[in-house]
Amino acid sequence: MMRFPIQNKDLRISRISSGYGPRWGRFHRGVDIAMPQGTMLVAPADGIVYVNATNRGGPTEGYGHYLILHHPELKKFTLYAHLRKLSEHRVGAKVKAEQSIAVSGNTGNSTGPHLHFEIHEDEHKFPARVNNHGGEDDPTIDPVKYYGLKDFMGKSSLTGADKVLYPEPEPPKKEDKTYKVRSGDNLSKIASQFRTSVKNLVEWNQRKYPSLRSNPNYIRPGWVLVVREGKKEDLEYTVVAGDTLSMIAKRHNVKTNDLVQWNQSKYPGLKKDPNLIFPGWKLVIK
Ligand SMILES: [Zn+2]
């Protein structure tokens, strides 16, 4: 999750003045955040300066002084337009999350001091496939959705948005366990492992990872999720193609031998060859 590109203290002097989407016959690929000229902009995540230039036409026509950061770890680009002056960071320079990157302004085709801010997904599509109609090949994402700022659209300031943008992580309850996301995990897998639901996992973790609300399918290795184990009831797991008994055992924190034990009366073949399981089998996990 990236943080917001302006500091918490500047939210009260900032407001969303125009949202993402079709506008005046073009596609507005970002969000406009009105703020006084000279407001400090900060890197939303670690990144590398990708473009630091003054626009003279092309797909970023009218952007004035603008800056693009690449965030390789997140596979994202962020773009800042109408800057007061060029950024002091050179192309290729590394920037740290929350480090100052530029100051807002009113350059280019702009009707008042504001930051035009874009988030681009997927390095492989950037920038060649940027288009002006928001079609399927447009790799931009709506920052309002990304940050959960829907309630602040059209408001006279972003006061109060800090609770959405910089939520205090919920202090873990004593009995809470945490789970560190591994590559290949998804929420439903984790939910089934802890005998709970995706909905619960989202609820317990959305303060720490707000993007879960808009996109529960997106989790990253290394995230530490709060999990509260459900009641210890037998769980039924339906085997899918590609499963092996040891994979299922590992995923549910049980031993392969136990799986055999619990299910051999229903599937006697298991005892002979635990590697022979078939999609559709319903295994009991205790
Ligand atoms: Zn704009």
Short key terms for the protein model shown above:
286 residues, alpha+beta, Glucose Permease (Domain IIA), Membrane-bound Lytic Murein Transglycosylase D, Chain A, 3 domains, 8-stranded antiparallel sheet, two-stranded antiparallel ribbon, 8 helices, 25% strand, elongated, binds zinc ion
Summarize the structure.
The chain is α+β, with helices and mostly antiparallel strands and 286 residues long.
> How would you classify the helix and strand content by structural class?
alpha+beta
Indicate the percent of residues in helices: 10-25%
Work out the count of structural domains: 3
CATH homologous superfamily placement of the largest domain: Glucose Permease (Domain IIA)
CA gyration radius, whole angstroms: 24 Å
What would CATH call the architecture of the largest domain?
Distorted Sandwich
The biggest sheet amounts to:
8 strands, antiparallel
- What is bound: which ligands? zinc ion
Q: Overall pLDDT, averaged? A: 87
Strand content: 25-35%
How many β-strand stretches? 16
Task: Please tell me what the overall shape is.
Answer: elongated
Indicate the low-confidence ranges by residue numbers. Answer: none
- Top-tier CATH class of the largest domain: Mainly Beta
H-E string: EEEEEEEEEEEEHHEHHHEEHHHE
